[in-house]
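Lab notebook: predicted structure, single chain.

Context: the supervisor wants predicted structures on file for every construct in the current expression panel, including those that have not yet been purified. This is the next one on the list. No modifications to the sequence; it matches the entry in the shared construct table.
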Amino acid sequence: MNRRRLFWVKVIFSALGAVGGFLYWKLEGCTSGTCAIKSVWYFSTLWGLALGYLLADLLGSFIMKREAEHE
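Prediction complete. Output recorded below exactly as produced.
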């Protein structure tokens, strides 16, 4: 996996994570306002974005490591 492809995988996973975080707020959001992450849409969206990026980075490093072992 080259760097350009890895970059786009991270962008796509981050976008999907952000959408997932927003949907989590929309469907499960905290109406009382006492929940730190779920009370405001941008906090849950940012958390989803961060989790998507971390998942893509983990997957990318795993794939690159496996490709390096097979060479």
